[in-house]
Amino acid sequence: MWAELATPEVKKLLVRVGAAIVLLVAAGIAVRRRLAATNGGVIPDQGFTVRNLFEMQVEALTSLARQTMGPEWRRWFPIVGTMFLFILVSNLMGLVPGVGGATSDVNTALAWAIISFCLFQYIGIRKHGWSYIVKYMGPSFYTWHVGGRHIHVRALAPLFLILEIPLDFVRIGTLTVRLLANMFADHTVVGVFLGLVPFGIPALFLGLGLIVSVLQAFVFALLTMVYINLALQEAH
Fold this sequence. Notes:
This protein is mainly alpha-helical. It has helices at residues 2-5, 8-36, 50-69, 73-93, 106-128, 157-196, 201-232; strands at 142-146, 149-153. It has one domain.
């Protein structure tokens, strides 16, 4: 039944997603084995290795996460790091002629955007409880102190609720469009020049594509961390 429902496009997308997962798992196993070796976690490898590449990425991301997400960065960093690595590998796969990357498909970009949205909403509710909805109610103009309690008067709450809730959901669209548009355009340009001029000029676009692939994965992870930081903050 599944074979009948799945279109060729869906099957191709599943293959690309599966390939990205396999590459990440294989790289993770290789790094883990290297770290488990004698002095593996102390002495760095010589030259350019998978372990050194992973350590560079993790070090850069952890530094960014510490600055962006604050004291609770360790709790949520594994999810954001996984998001970054999957998007990065998928972006790079798109530069390989005849392979293609999953992030050039709207379904993959939308899926990660929804995951990001659900993640920071969950974190906000987990941190503040159902008072998390206060962030949609606008600023407090006056505070009443009654019986040891503080009651914030938010006179513009109805207006802000109408505006802020839809704007929050717009983040799904912006994350999706930013990733999809950049990667689809980049991979299309590389593919066109590879077809027209097999040597020379395409190398320039492959180099540019490499930069764009890393940058877009970085931007997606950075925006997710920014949204998490906003969800962790108290509404005023």
